[in-house]
Description:
Helices cover 54% and strands 10% of the residues. It is mainly α. The chain has two domains: 179 residues, no CATH class; 53 residues, no CATH class. The protein is globular, with a radius of gyration of 20 Å.
Amino acid sequence: MGELSIEEYNKIIKQEEACLFPKSYVCPICDEHFKSLTVRSSKLYSQGMDEDLRPKFRWVDPIKYEVVVCPICGYGALSRYFNEMIPVWRKMLQNGMPSFNNERVFLGGNRLSYDESLKLYEFACRCNELAAFKGSRKAYTYLKRGWVVRGKLYAESDFLKPEEKEGLKIEETRCLELAYDGFMKAISEEDFPIAGMDEDTLMYLCSALANRLEKYADAMTLLSRLMASRTVNPRVKDKAFDLKEIVRERLKEQEANGQ
Ligand SMILES: [Zn+2]
């Protein structure tokens, strides 16, 4: 990123703010009406994606804004799940949320810093532990949280101390590990689409996560299964082919090091 002048920094902030608008929500737990910053999809300019499907955009990291948290009761979830509520889950959340000790989020700013966004993810993950949601909902939240941690590592790289970077890498790995374990379980227990993904996409995502988690043999098994499928989407197949080359190299290195 290099050294940024104050003017350049302010320009970046203004560009991010211009991509956002306050969207209205009604909390399914306490009925509070509130607004939460949301990205205007028309303002997104794609800059490709990481090999594990984390999308990248100019000016704004939309994953920072994917969690919605009620400022009154503290109920939080990824926006796609926010209104998915049944009475038994509501009861579980209402019983468990007092353990948050009245900790609340502030939603008054014009944008979210990475730390503010990670705080919202913390609320969503805590709520996920309270109710008997599907495993894929928990896994998807951890995946997105891991991606926000990675986003912080990239965006704030120049300002972070080595030990802070190390801590963030550990946190990213922890989140991706929880996502991987949850999705692998969901593949055998849930019906597709899972978290909006078809079978090919989720199998590919899991193989990419396994690769990042240095579970190369598992990654190879998943990729072989995926590529043996006759109906696999050609775009997914191309990505799987590229990833297989990388995993093959890593496996060779591992064997050479006698691991
Ligand atoms: Zn609420």
